[in-house]
Amino acid sequence: MTIDTHIHFWKYNKQRDAWMDDMKILQKDYLPENVSLTLTRNGIDGCVAVQADQSELETHFLVELAKTHPIIKGVVGWIDLQNENIGERLSYFSQYPVIKGWRHIAQGEPHDFLLRKSFQRGISYLQAYGYTYDVLIYHHQLQPAVEFVSTFPDQKFIIDHCAKPDIKHKKMDDWKILMREMATHPNVCCKISGLFTEAAWKEWTPAEFYPYLDTVFDAFGTDRLLFGSDWPVLLVSGIYVQWKSLLEKYMENFAEEDRQKFFGGNAERFYSL
Length: 273
Known about the structure:
- The chain is of the alpha/beta class and 273 residues long.
- It has one domain (3-270): TIM Barrel (Alpha-Beta Barrel), CATH 3.20.20.
- The chain has helices at residues 32-41, 56-68, 86-93, 117-123, 142-151, 173-183, 206-220, 240-250, 256-270, and strands at residues 3-7, 46-50, 72-77, 99-104, 132-135, 157-159, 188-192, 225-227.
- Strand 6 (157-159), helix 6 and strand 7 form a beta-alpha-beta unit.
- The longest helix has 15 residues, at 206-220.
């Protein structure tokens, strides 16, 4: 199967979704029926729906969507990992097998957030349920993130959006060093997603992404990289077919087996789809 490991769905709410204030195109409902044709045209067989709001209500919303839209093969929800009753909440949500893992929007948190004892206590509960954890950070938060993943060597982690490198300003030295360090931890995978919005919106060229792709492919190899689109957020800077085509072009000389792993096989394995 060809799997898109990073898609968001929402019913637009002006108060809740204030982060979209400078992204007019996102200020409306985006639901499975709005992307189904796009996914079909791009040969996508299934997707992982990832939380965009920090509430248990969001997790329930995605679970309900998955019940009526078979294209959703897995859900990465939100749960308060710092809550004292985290064990009880995880036990409750374990009734929904479509939930594969969890994510917190750590990119908006203080630099040391991932290292907080209260947060790490919550993370320590995930492995017992076979849950994954999506690490959403900016490139300047990579140092504590490396320390964070090293604390849990048996927990499955995935770095969202290649840790959002500064493609717009063509900076990569520190990011490159730390992503290589991150990749030394075998329990960590990386999503190649969300890079359109880290470049100059709608003014990028495909060549700008190649040095960043070279870095993650060299560091993680084709067994630990997963394809994702970050739809509909990518619409701020491009369209779906541009992103998928860019990656297909980049990988045109890779072995067919490696392309299959990147565009689906690794996703099935990592998220237990």
